[in-house]
């Protein structure tokens, strides 16, 4: 997997100690890219230079028709290299890409293990954006406040990440896009509606990889702050789905920023009313701290988002990371089927039931089996059954 981060980096350190808990010393907007692979119980980590050398450039451009979207003398940056390599890997393995943003107080080992588990459970390839949440540091209110400050300070870095990824993917798909346009226009030169429909069909075959953005916990606060401060109308347009899981941000007024997301397929907000971590978050000191979006089933007023309630789903309980562990351990679990669908860029409604009273979709537990009737003549509640 690749990890893009604005954390401080310590190249001489071993393993995950290369990633520090604070923002990059050159500024919170400075992004670096690392390639990470599982190595036994640990991780093999390669920090990429900002500018990729000729050897890797030649290896990369040979895999893409049109030279990986690069001009002959154009500099190849680490972010473009990572995007191209992941897209090529996804095509070869016939997998989709999941961009993952973690939450509060996550140290790098937890983040990497979670990303690895997402790959194994849902059959996707993961690109992780890691902001400097201070995992392993002071717990409680002090750490929570510091992480909120670091998330807010990471807004420009996260916006750069999203816009850069979108630009790289567009360039990498550029040659295929041109070919599909020409074929569609040649077949339907006068019928623009038929031309556009054919173009979409051809692109789906030429570029079958779907992309999803999943944000967990305080990662949603980072998205909120980015959308509220950005002047771009394109944030989210790279992705088929944007999935907000256990969102640790205010429920009040969320439609204001959620409706600025430009996902191609769907925006999904996943709610667990019993989420213990979000209940604890709601009592943190501060006037701005209100009921959390990932826990409340009221004021669900976004015009674009699909609200998904998993409160009654088996094994969820008071969980905060219910996309892993017991709730999705079984391959037949309805929650696993739902997340498999949406993390792979599909809609996921086949796993849901409509709740017309609240205007949301539900993943409910198994229906209770009817109790067998007692034998005729047996006393029930002190009276003979007739």
Report on the architecture of this protein.
The protein is of the alpha/beta class and 386 residues long. It folds into two domains: 2-174 and 209-362, 3-Layer(aba) Sandwich (Rossmann fold); 175-208, no CATH class. The chain has eleven helices and 15 strands. It has an eleven-stranded mixed beta sheet, with helices on both faces. Helix 9 links the parallel strand 9 (241-245) and strand 10 (266-271). Helix 2 (78-93) packs across helix 5, helix 5 crosses helix 8 (219-229) and helix 6 packs antiparallel against helix 7 (192-206). The longest helix has 18 residues, at 155-172. It is globular, with a radius of gyration of 23 Å. The protein starts with a strand and ends with a strand. Residues 376-386 have low confidence and may be disordered.
Keywords:
386 residues, disordered C terminus, 2 domains, Rossmann fold, eleven-stranded mixed beta sheet, single chain, alpha/beta, two-stranded antiparallel sheet
Question: Could you tell me the radius of gyration in angstroms?
Answer: 23 Å
CATH architecture of the largest domain: 3-Layer(aba) Sandwich
Beta-strand portion reads 15-25%
What is the CATH class of the largest domain?
Alpha Beta
Describe the sheet with the most strands: 11 strands, mixed
The average pLDDT is 85
Tell me the number of structural domains: 2
How much helix, percentage-wise, in residues?
A: 25-40%
State the separation between the terminal residues, measured CA to CA: 68 Å
Number of helices: 11
Low-confidence parts = 376-386
SS elements, strand count: 15
Per CATH, the superfamily of the largest domain is Alpha/Beta hydrolase fold, catalytic domain
Order of helices and strands: EEEEEHHEHEHHHHEHEHEHEHEEEE
Shape: globular
The computed structural class is alpha/beta
Widest beta sheet: strand line-up = 5-4-1-7-6-8-9-10-11-13-12
CATH topology of the largest domain: Rossmann fold
């Amino acid at each position: 997997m690749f990890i893009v981060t604005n954390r401080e980096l310590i190249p001489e350190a071993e393993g995950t100690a290369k990633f520090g808990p604070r923002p990059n010393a050159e500024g919170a907007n400075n992004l670096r890219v690392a390639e990470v692979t599982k190595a036994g119980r640990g991780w093999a980590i390669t920090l990429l230079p900002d500018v990729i050398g000729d050897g890797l450039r030649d290896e990369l451009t040979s895999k893409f028709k049109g030279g990986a979207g690069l001009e002959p003398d154009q500099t190849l940056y680490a972010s473009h290299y990572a995007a191209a390599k992941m897209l090529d890997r996804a095509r070869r393995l016939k997998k989709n890409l999941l961009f993952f943003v973690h939450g509060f107080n996550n140290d790098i080992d937890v983040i990497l293990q979670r990303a690895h588990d997402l790959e194994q459970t849902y059959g996707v390839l993961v690109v992780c954006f890691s902001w400097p949440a201070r995992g392993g540091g002071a717990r409680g209110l002090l750490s929570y406040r510091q992480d909120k400050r670091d998330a807010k300070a990471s807004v420009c870095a996260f916006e750069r990440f999203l816009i850069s990824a979108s630009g790289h993917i567009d360039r990498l798909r550029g040659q295929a896009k041109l070919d599909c346009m020409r074929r569609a226009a040649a077949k339907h030169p006068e019928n623009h509606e038929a031309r556009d429909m054919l173009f979409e069909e051809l692109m789906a075959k030429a570029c079958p990889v779907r992309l999803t953005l999943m944000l967990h916990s305080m990662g949603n606060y980072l998205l909120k702050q980015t959308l509220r401060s950005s002047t771009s109308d394109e944030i989210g347009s790279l992705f088929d789905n944007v999935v907000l899981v256990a969102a640790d941000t205010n429920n009040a007024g969320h439609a204001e920023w959620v409706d600025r997301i430009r996902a191609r397929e769907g925006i999904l907000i996943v709610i667990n009313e019993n989420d213990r971590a979000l209940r604890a978050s709601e009592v943190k000191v501060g006037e701005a701290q209100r009921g959390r979006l990932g826990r409340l089933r009221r004021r669900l007023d976004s015009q674009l988002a699909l609200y998904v309630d998993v409160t009654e789903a088996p094994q969820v309980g008071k969980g905060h990371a219910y996309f892993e562990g017991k709730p999705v351990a079984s391959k037949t679990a309805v929650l696993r089927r739902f997340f498999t669908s949406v993390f792979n860029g599909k809609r996921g409604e086949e796993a849901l039931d409509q709740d017309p009273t609240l205007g949301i979709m539900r993943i409910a537990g198994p229906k209770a089996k009817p109790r067998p009737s007692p034998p005729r003549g047996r006393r029930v509640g002190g009276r003979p059954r007739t």
